[in-house]
Prior knowledge:
InterPro entries: WxLIP_HBD, WxLIP_PGBD. The protein is of the alpha+beta class and 349 residues long.
Amino acid sequence: MAGMSLRKLIWGLLTLGLLGGQAFGFPLSVQAAQTPTANFVVTPLFPKNQLSTKDGYFNLKVTPGSTQTLKLSVNNPGTTRRELQIIPVNATTADSGTIVYIPSNRTDPSAKTTFTKMTSPAVTVDLAPHQGKTVSFVTKIPKNGFTGEILGGLFVTNPKTSKASTKRTAQNFQLANRYAVTTAVALWCQPNQAVPAKVQLASTKVITNDASTAPVVVAKLRNLAPIAFGELKIKTQVFEKATGHEIVSQTLKNRSMAPNSWFNSEIGLGDKPLAPGKYTLKMQLASGDRHWRFTQDFTLSKVRAQEHNTRTKSVKGAATAWYWFALAGGLVLVIARLAYWLGRRHKDH
């Protein structure tokens, strides 16, 4: 009877632990989104002024005042008719700090010209099953040429794949449930000309992306030069202005920026309650032997401080709950081992 009671006690405690796990929200397994299969093939047809045939994109030396023709071969390997849309786009920088080639209006005003301004408009191509066609675009190079590089791309997609396949937000441009391919286009008047990158911290402010997230500090970084660069490391710190106390620190690596582009670098406000008032943002950027340092003050309003403090309390409450649950789990194991030891001792006696 004593052994049976001990077993009941052990199973009862373990069951309580499992139920506790469900109550405290153990994460459930989530299936990964399926990657759409390729339903068309795009191949760039390089002209004679291609700088390197090893590049898988258009990398061209162009002449001021000339007209450059860009040709793409598009093929439909499937058994159904497809309608493809080919859109010239400018290279921009996403908020993740990466160069992207998607439809966007995020080109920086510092750009004297862009790929889309120089290139003929989008075209639509209808392809029968197993049919291929060659699509041509005309790019007019300015009479006075340009400094650095013009970076863009030819964005190819099937607009009928999904009616709600694109979503445009204030922060970024997203594609969902749509297969797309972009062939990059880099144009140079003087490929060997050294153009220094010029980065500027345009603004710093506190925002909330939506009601379910805590406020974040957004630093808008601009590349004012017509040159792309990568291997960008960004260290960001937030200080309380009155005391100089560091609130939070963050380091990002392997970022990149497109020519004459901008992006919003975000950093949270930490996990401690904050008072409304003045704060200071400090940023250190490095790309190779290029370095930039920025310092800018910003204001945390009463509304944003309240939102942050509410989220902080919620996170701390959840952390406290997990602490007590972990403590209870440890207690269960101790009791289980003690019960096992008592059971063995009772059996030996």
